[in-house]
Specification:
It is a single chain. Strands 3-10-9-4-5-7-6-8 form an eight-stranded mixed β-sheet. A two-stranded antiparallel ribbon has the order 1-2. By secondary structure, the chain is an alpha/beta fold. It holds the Pfam family MT-A70.
């Protein structure tokens, strides 16, 4: 498929597939491209190169972590590994995909979401950050998360994003870039099977909670309810990276019968009437 470019002086035709996949080839082949389009294609080329560099860095970090972190499988890892017993909910919409290369434009054209939930695989500060706790998922640099086209997926609605301690400022910057205003936060106090506080690892203090920041964009989705639930969840810690079911229930109470999207989802977070996208589904 091709499209005529009326702004070029020679009347060349621009191959859309080349524009999508080989911007550097188009720049060289069509010297009369409009300046703005040339800049965009150059920027896309730079981003592709940067992503390749970051993917190499991630692979190196993963290799370092895998060889330097001693770990004995615990209950979370064992539970996470028993996928032969797993059955997906009947009405969930799982999409197994790499979020860095997924066609977000096509999804945005098909559906605008009332609520977007994200649990990014934040890159920790050091090469051996876990001090004996294994990382069972790939981490992503902030720039990869920041470049996700969240703004395209939602004209009006709420963004829920899980954050670790040293990423608060970064998430506020991301919200601003994507067009959101911070409106609330939710604290998950982790508990053991005996209902005791499940203390985890931390540099100065032992962490027994996780925080989900809430942003809002545009107007409230139709049917939004107010003053619901509580901003504190007391819930048992379950599988690796598995977030409490109470959060999903809270979201569905906030925006009943809404259109829900989870990014960086895992099998253990699949839920009826949610679109879930992740590379571990």
């Amino acid at each position: 498929m091709s499209q005529s470019n009326n702004d070029t002086s020679s009347g060349e035709e621009i191959d859309i597939e080349h524009l999508t996949h080989e911007p550097s080839v188009v720049i060289e082949a069509l010297p009369n491209l409009p300046t703005q389009l040339r800049k965009l294609l150059k920027r896309e080329t730079e981003l592709h190169l940067r992503i390749d560099e970051l993917m190499d860095e991630i692979a190196n970090l993963e290799a370092i972590t895998g060889t330097s972190v001693a770990h004995e499988p615990g209950p979370e890892v064992e539970n996470d590994a028993r996928w032969e017993e797993f059955e997906a909910p009947d009405w969930c919409i799982p999409i197994k995909a790499n979020v860095l290369t997924f066609d977000w434009d096509e999804l945005a054209n098909e559906c605008q979401f009332d609520v977007i939930l994200m649990d990014p695989p934040w890159q920790l500060a050091t090469h051996a950050p876990t001090r004996g706790v294994a990382i069972a998922y790939q981490q992503l640099p902030d720039v990869c998360i920041e470049e996700l086209p969240i703004a395209k997926l939602q004209q009006n609605g709420f963004l829920f994003i899980w954050v670790i301690n040293n990423k608060y400022a970064k998430v506020f910057d991301m919200m601003k870039k994507w067009g959101y205003t911070y409106v609330d936060d939710i604290t998950w106090v982790k508990q053991t099977v005996n209902r005791r506080m499940a203390k985890g690892h931390g540099f100065y203090l032992q962490h027994a909670k996780e925080t989900c920041l809430v942003g809002k964009k545009g107007i409230d989705p139709p049917g939004t309810r107010y003053s619901i639930s509580s901003d504190v969840i007391f819930s048992e810690r379950r599988g690796q990276s598995q977030k409490p079911e109470e959060l999903y229930e809270m979201i569905e109470e906030l925006v009943p019968d809404g259109k829900y999207l989870e990014i960086f989802g895992r099998k253990n977070n699949l839920r009826d009437y949610w679109v879930t996208i992740g590379n571990e589904l």
